Amino acid sequence: MRLNKMGRPTAGRLRRALRVAKSIRMLITDVDGVLTDGGLYYDSAGSISKKFNVHDGLGIRVAQAAGLEIAVMSGLASGAVETRVRELGIEEYFAGFKEKGDLVRALSDRRGIGLHEIAYLGDDWVDATVMRLVGLPVAVANAQPEILRRAWLVTKAMGGQGALRETIRFILHAQGALSGQWERWS
Question: Which of 1, 70, 157, 186 sits a CA distance of 20 to 30 A from 169?
Fold first, then answer.
């Protein structure tokens, strides 16, 4: 893959991402480092809390309204994540999976969505296998270098800072649905 001086995908990769985004039917996202800033906040009882970006939440609602399916996969099981996912009406939530490739294949088969019709947003090595499988691999701005190289699209936003919303906007724009959603929501 050709990269620019910043280690990001070239303009050719971006054009390819835009073309592929037109046929995306499902967007799968990682959690830690993507929907969150990657921090794990422990209280004195050992419970973990996480911070989510409200822009990502509304982006999920916009995607759902436009018919783009959303799935969430996390290497860690967390009550905070499960609460947020359920609050957003996401039915496809998978927690505690380090090997995500087989899971994505099974989800693709079960939902009747081709792997080429799936986008995946990740940030770290556990996302590498999935990014090789799907039609549109996307990385957050502060992803690990190997993940940045695997991505066809790299968000300007870092994990936990609206990267999912940015990815959703890109896909809906490519599909000609973004302005219609803006009209609907405004």
Answer: 1
